[in-house]
Amino acid sequence: MADSAFFCTLSHEGVLAVRGADAGKFLQGQLTCNINYLSDTRASLGARCTQKGRMQSSFRILLEGDGVVLAMASELLEPQLADLKKYAVFSKSKLTDESTAWVRFGLEHGDTALTSLGLDLPAETDSVVRNEGLIAIRVSPQRAELWAPADQADASKARLAAALPEAGLNQWLLGQIRAGIGQVMSTTRELFIPQMLNLQAVGGVSFKKGCYTGQEIVARMQYLGKLKRRLYRLSLDTAQLPEPGTPLFAPSHNSSIGEVVLAAHAGQNIELLAVLQAESAEAGDLHVGSLEGPALHLLDLPYELDRDREIQR
Q1: Contact yes or no for 235/271 (Cβ under 8 A)
Q2: Is the overall model pTM greater than 0.90, yes or no?
Q3: Where are the alpha helices (DSSP H) in the chain?
Q4: Pairing relationship of beta strands 269-277 and 286-288 according to DSSP bridges
Q5: How many Å apart are CA 23 and CA 35, to the nearest integer?
Q6: pLDDT tens digits for 118-168?
């Protein structure tokens, strides 16, 4: 079903809003993405890091009203909100949890349904269109998010259901895995730098924007470092879904050589994204949970890592 048309409710994420005259200026010093690249027709992925460049959260960000909204894993929203408020105290910006103000849907092969809502969404990733309060975002080829204000959610869902079958969240996460888009969860908070999740390859890191928290570490890794761990896509011949943060092992090492980032059922098997030591990934013989755990098999990602292209953002 992941290869056919469907829609689902994105119940696993919340919405953090930053509004006010200084919202953009404040966030420019906090996030890996360039706020100046956002527009009414352009969204972005991004992350917020510690001083050591470790990701506290990852998100999709877009302009909305008098500020911006960020969709991230629900369990990360409150700690991020509390922490950001400490830095915003002298800024003309207001930070709030707007999770109940929006209902968000994921659509795969659902452009016809969007068109029926007056949303003619371009094919280019990160494109945004708006119509009467509704927002559609192209998140990867053939995949889109629909953001509906809470008072329009029921009507929007009914319109979607008239055009598309409804699926469970697993199908949406499987599409995200196949698109190679990692995500920080509570169990992987502060575990990865952005390049470990290939965030720079999917437009979530700007190397031209100037300073932000953790920028020195992230930039040094891009220009001078040799990244030893990065994101891979794999399959698993088992029905038991590994949680984010589950360690991975290889016989050549006595300790963990990586962690699960995101996993979803794919028919009788499982597909997942994981951060792995590059040398171990190339050698193969990978296992989840323990050296005796189920074997992992490498799959292709839909993009190439290209440092020269990535640093142009």
Answers
A1: yes
A2: yes
A3: 23-28, 74-87, 111-116, 153-163, 169-178, 215-223, 278-283, 307-310
A4: unpaired
A5: 10
A6: 999 999 999 999 999 999 999 999 999 999 999 999 999 999 999 999 999
